[in-house]
Write a structure and sequence with these properties.
- Strands 2-1-3-12-11-4-5-10-8-9 form a ten-stranded mixed β-sheet, with helices on both faces. It has a two-stranded antiparallel sheet with strand order 6-7.
- α1 crosses α9 (about 280-290).
- It is an alpha/beta fold.
- The model has no long low-confidence stretch (mean pLDDT about 95).
- The chain has two domains: about 1-110 and about 240-335, Isopropylmalate Dehydrogenase; about 125-225 and about 235-240, 3-Layer(aba) Sandwich (Rossmann fold), CATH 3.40.50.
- It has eleven helices and twelve strands.
- β6 (about 130) and β7 form a beta hairpin.
């Protein structure tokens, strides 16, 4: 069997150091991957004069599986979000953001285990029809939902729920006000739900969902929703388990996937050996599950659980006093 090649984008700011941590852990657990390194973001802009060089796109296309650190998109006009560009280019229609409680974090809740499945290419977030009037007094953007896009994402959520033995899928919408777009999404979600009688189907208006997540998060299992709502809800869910440092993300298409830390590049602590690599370690766990290497994924997850629970060499955001390299060493010892 040929070795699995992985495209690795170290990213900006703290990206290279946390990606390095994840790679050491993958090697330690015996994954035997071949890595092709590629640049994107500010790093690529400085080296090649573009945010997403052609070579990087070629490697993503060629290897089909990518592990990515946080990227910085320069603020201001003329720069499109790199993440949005990648999702469109490779038709990565599904964004999967699991949150899981680990004892020993500063989180307010215990026993949280929620997956947000967010449609990644349509809706308000896709940047369609953005115009600002010449005098700057008026701005417009367009939201477009297709039946095909809605059906694809909701089916993905139910299939994943079934595969992982999950009990319930909640479709989150705003169909009471956005009767056209959110209305179509909800209609399709109901139709798809009927095909999965073994899974409980629920629906909830997005504002109520935010309140319910804060008051009683344990009622949720899998949440499926449109692009903008999913972006907001998945960050809220991360807040339930200790913040974005604990939350990984996967962008999955029909034959290509990108796994990433969902937090930013934290330039203020870059190069200081302070960053918590948990988000990208968990993203690599998602990657292993995608590659049907669940046994190795489980080994990494339980080592991580033990490091955080015992507070052995944890980073400051986890209440410890250590840095990225010490945290990584604690992980490697357990593996």
């Amino acid at each position: 069997m040929a070795q699995q090649r992985i495209t690795v984008i170290p990213g900006d700011g703290i990206g290279p150091s946390i990606i390095d941590s994840a790679i050491q852990i993958l090697d330690k657990v015996g994954c035997d991957f071949e890595y092709d390194y590629a640049d994107a973001g500010i790093t690529a802009l400085e080296k090649d004069g573009e945010l997403l060089p052609a070579r990087t796109l070629e490697l993503i296309e060629q290897n089909k599986v990518t592990l990515k650190g946080p990227l910085t998109t320069p603020v201001g006009e003329g720069f499109t979000s790199i993440n949005v560009s990648l999702r469109k280019q490779f038709k990565l229609y599904s964004n999967v953001r699991p949150v899981l409680s680990f004892k020993g974090t500063q989180a307010r809740y215990e026993n949280i285990d929620i997956i947000t499945v967010r449609e990644n290419t349509e809706g308000m977030y896709s940047g369609l029809g953005q115009v600002v009037s010449e005098d700057g007094s008026e701005a417009q953007a367009m939201s477009k939902i297709t039946r095909e896009g809605a059906e694809r994402i909701v089916t993905f959520a139910y299939e994943m729920a079934r595969r992982e033995g999950r009990k319930k899928v909640t479709a989150v919408h705003k169909a009471n006000i956005l009767k056209s777009t959110s209305g179509l999404f909800l209609k399709v979600a109901r139709e798809v739900g009927e095909r999965y009688p073994d899974i409980e189907s629920a629906e909830m208006i997005v504002d109520n969902c935010c309140m319910q997540l804060v008051m009683n998060p344990h009622q949720f299992d899998v949440i499926v929703t449109t692009n903008l709502f999913g972006d907001i809800l998945s960050d809220l869910c991360a807040g339930l388990v200790g913040g974005l440092g604990m939350a990984p993300g996967a962008n999955i298409g029909s034959d290509c996937a990108i796994f990433e830390a969902v937090h930013g590049s934290a330039p203020d602590i870059a190069g200081k050996n302070l960053a918590n690599p948990t988000s990208v370690i968990l993203a690599s766990v998602q990657m292993l599950e995608y590659l049907n290497m669940g046994d190795k994924a489980e080994k990494i997850r339980s080592a991580l659980k033990d490091v955080i629970e015992t507070g052995d060499r944890t980073t400051r955001d986890l209440g410890g006093e250590h840095g990225t390299t010490d945290f990584t060493a604690a992980m490697l010892e357990r593996l």
